[in-house]
Design goal:
The complex is a heterodimer of chains A (about 110) and B (about 575). Chain A has about 110 residues and is of the alpha/beta class. Chain A has a single domain, classed as 2-Layer Sandwich (Transcription Regulator spoIIAA), CATH 3.30.750.24. Chain A has a five-stranded mixed sheet. In chain A, strand 4, helix 3 and strand 5 form a beta-alpha-beta unit. In chain A, helix 1 packs parallel to helix 2. The longest helix of chain A has 17 residues. Chain A is globular, with a radius of gyration of 13 Å. Chain B has a five-stranded antiparallel sheet. Chain B has two domains: about 300 residues, no CATH class; about 220 residues, Phosphatase 2c, domain 1. In chain B, helix 2 packs across helix 6. Chain B contains 14 helices and ten strands. Chain B has about 575 residues and is α+β, with helices and mostly antiparallel strands. Chain B is about 60% helix and about 10% strand. The chains are: A alpha/beta (about 110), B alpha+beta (about 575).
Amino acid sequence: MEATESRAGGTTTLRISGRVDGSVSKQLEQRVQDIVSRDEHVIVDLGAMSYVSSAGLRCFIVLAKYAKAKQKSLALVALQDEVSEIFEISGLLNLFKVYGTVDDAVAALPR
Amino acid sequence: MTLSRPFPVREGGSSEAAPRSAGRWLLLNLLVLIAYSVLGVIILFFGIGPAKISPIYPPAGIAVAAVIVLGPRILPAVFIGEFLNGFPLLFLPDTTVRMYVLANIGVGIGAMLEAWIGARLLEQLTGTWHPFERSRDVVVFLLGSSLVAGLVGGTIGSLSLWLGGFVPPGELRITFVTFFLSDASGIAVFAALMLAWVREPELDRTVIVACLVGIAGAALIAGLAVASRFAIDFLYLPLLLWTAFRAGPRGVTVAAMAITAFAILTTINGVGSFVGRTPNESILLLEVFLAVITFTGLLTVAILAQRRAAEAALEAHNRMLEQRVRERTAEVAEKNRLLKEKQARIDDDLNTARVLQSSILPADFSAYRATAIAASMRPALEVSGDFYDVFPLPAGRLGLVVADVSGKGVAAAFFMAVTRTLLRGVAGECESPAGCLVRVNDALCRENPIDMFVTALYAELDEATGAVRLVNAGHCEPIVVRADGTAETVRRAGNPPLGVTAGRDFAERSVTLGPGEMLFLYTDGVTEAVNREGEQFHMARLVEIAQASAGQSPQELMLAVIGRVEKFSAGTLQADDITCLVVRRNG
């Protein structure tokens, strides 16, 4: 897994690529928690995420709960079909705002 | 002025002297007077030249030491002693009683003033009456108590003699110098001797030996000098220093006294460095020598004492440091012990938790006639976040649960216990499995720590028909093992885990088990077990094992899975709890 972040105003976009499984979930969870506690809006770009295990999914659930508790906005964008299906059958899609592209997500941010 | 070395507290110093202390006063004065007079006679044997003038006057030292130790009340003895010590003057021709009395009253007053000033100066400037422990005190003693006091006594004494007519014309100056220097050296040698011994009167071997060696050594040097007629007076110096090192103030003052006596005696015999062209010259040379001897000796013992004091302070400091280290070490050891105790209690608690946890997992399934069941839970840590459950429900149904709490350890185990209890509590009362999970989910969402949720698979098996209604809340997909040797997974229906969002509906799936067919429930500790290359065990392998186990017992399927996972992940640390539950409908 690789994760790179870019920041503009109060919005951070985190781009995750590769496999997200039990070996990286803890580290990813901590990183996104840091971003969520710092910034108002967090966009997670999953366009290059090829695989997510159930341990990886847990990490996203924790993030969704954390963002909700902190009243921050957390959006997922560019989910690949396979990943989208995993989120779907795991009942997680409606925990997040989901957009096609980063631009769509930025456009949907409250002004 | 230091409190540790005060002047002695003198009795009878107050204005209201008790009658009892009057006798004591008389006795003390008498004793001092005797010492004064005896020494006054003895020095007659140490007189130099036809006038028999001694270069040192010991009674002056006795007087200063007596006033220092006993107080000014001793001054009458000094006056009378000094008055009487002039008795050789009576043997001079032309001496009248009137001359003698007038002159010696003056000399006596001079002696009293001298003793009082010498004592006061030491008291005022050093605060101690044992001026052998600091080099500064030695200097004050020699310059103040000895030289300045001697100057006063010498001035008054020589003037009194002159006024009495005892000084030949033109000899006032030399009379004054002799009087002054003999008093000063008397104080330097004898007051020091008295003060050193009054302070430490107890005798020990080292001191006695050092004193005897000092006296004998001085006698030997003097004897050698007389026998050889060589000026070897410099040999006194190493002897003096040796006694200083061996026996401190007491040794060095005894040696100084002995050296003084023998130096004078050899000079009287006309031998040594101090023999001058005239008796007065000899007396002056001797007095300079005595000054060097006393100054060197006393300064040496003071420096030694200072060094000892510094060493003692250093040692005390070291002892204090060692004590602190010992205390700290003990503190740390105690804390360590407490920590260990605490750790032992925690270990104990964890062990209890583990036992409790495994005890709430059912292990005996022999009561179920229509189904064969095997189950196992292997935690990655002492306590687990996984659990399985099997319980009978009304109308011939069987409740089956496999669940996995997010996180591990005590918190996960606690959450697991809550979930299990909630599910058991509602299972009998709900109209459907999905309805059960809706209630459990809402209960878990109500009060839930941020990172706690649980994926669960809950199934209800109708033992008579083999119909299974199951709800998958974000959990792994169960596997159905058919009688014909095929195996299929039951797809998820889009339900989130329990404890994530409240008010959710849950969708059900249903399958039917034919006779001999099995339902295999497990947690992701199985499919996501990792081998040394970082590869996951994966569903495909699991389905493969399931197919190969068709027609076998649940126990056999379960052991096959656990065995394969174990073999697969050999050499790695078990990362997650591994839980299996296999149910077969008997045919």
